[in-house]
Design goal:
Elements: H1 11-21, H2 25-28, H3 30-41, E1 52-56, H4 62-70, E2 75-80, H5 83-89, E3 100-103, E4 116-122, H6 131-141, E5 142-151, H7 159-166, H8 180-190, H9 209-218, H10 235-239
Parallel strand pairs: 1-2, 1-4, 2-3, 4-5
Length: 240
């Protein structure tokens, strides 16, 4: 068993990783694109016209652009902790369909209480060192009838890689991902009404470790555990 503190995340390492990945992210983000598109489709069930929308953890802003074109009269704000990701997001600006870009920590949003009608967030929450703080901020900025829709990664994520490393050493090589009921409990603590959650299992198959690691790095998905090992430890440990 690992001490829970071993799973604490290094926020600066996360920002550096996504800054480095800003130029390679789109080409490698196969899973991210699939999740994003499914989450956007589910907005068809939304029963109102939001006036202000936040894309929280916008990355290169594919979803931000889609949200801007779906609700043409709404103000859309793209928020990310990575300045270079926001730089890449500039390329998604339409000539007439502009959106705001804001560099901010998801746990400290520079927005007024109750000022947002829709917070949309795809595969960001697993990078939050304190998910409760992020959810509390989302709840704070949402209007009384506001809506929060998000996707995050579950505990089986990279399970095979985690188990393989456990054959080699006892260090933290793969992040811990929250169970669905833990996320649900956090939503209730934050004050959300009637949260609804479900699970979709997606399998990606890789020929070898090097290809998997290359894709993870290209999407900024590096090991950012505060107690992560300084390096993989050489060819022999990678072979094992």
């Amino acid at each position: 068993m690992h001490d829970p503190d071993e799973y604490a995340l290094d926020a600066r390492a996360i920002r550096r990783a996504f800054d480095r990945a800003s130029a390679t992210y789109d080409a490698a983000a196969v899973l991210q694109a699939r999740v994003r598109d499914e989450l956007l489709r589910r907005l068809d069930l939304l029963g109102f016209e939001p006036a202000c929308i936040v894309d929280l953890g916008c990355g290169t802003a594919h979803a931000t652009r889609a949200l801007r074109y779906r609700w043409r009269d709404a103000r859309v704000i793209a928020i990310d902790h990575s300045p270079r990701m926001l730089g890449a997001a500039r390329a998604r600006q339409g000539w007439f369909r502009r959106f705001d870009r804001v560099c901010a920590d998801a746990a400290r949003l520079p927005l007024r209480d109750g000022s947002v009608d829709l917070v949309w967030s795809s595969l960001m929450l697993q990078w939050a060192g304190n998910p409760d703080a992020v959810l509390a901020e989302v709840r704070r900025v949402l209007s009384p009838r506001g809506y929060f829709t998000f996707a995050t990664l579950g505990p089986d994520t990279l399970r095979e890689l985690r188990e393989a490393w456990r054959e080699v050493d006892d260090a933290v090589h793969v992040h811990r991902f929250l169970e669905m009921h833990d996320v649900g409990d956090a939503l209730v603590r934050a004050g959300f009404a009637d949260p609804v959650m479900d699970v979709e299992r997606v399998t990606l198959t890789y020929a070898d470790l090097d290809v998997l690691v290359a894709d993870l790095r290209a999407t900024g998905s590096r090991n950012a555990a505060a107690r992560r090992p300084a390096a993989l430890g050489g060819r022999e440990r990678r072979r094992r």
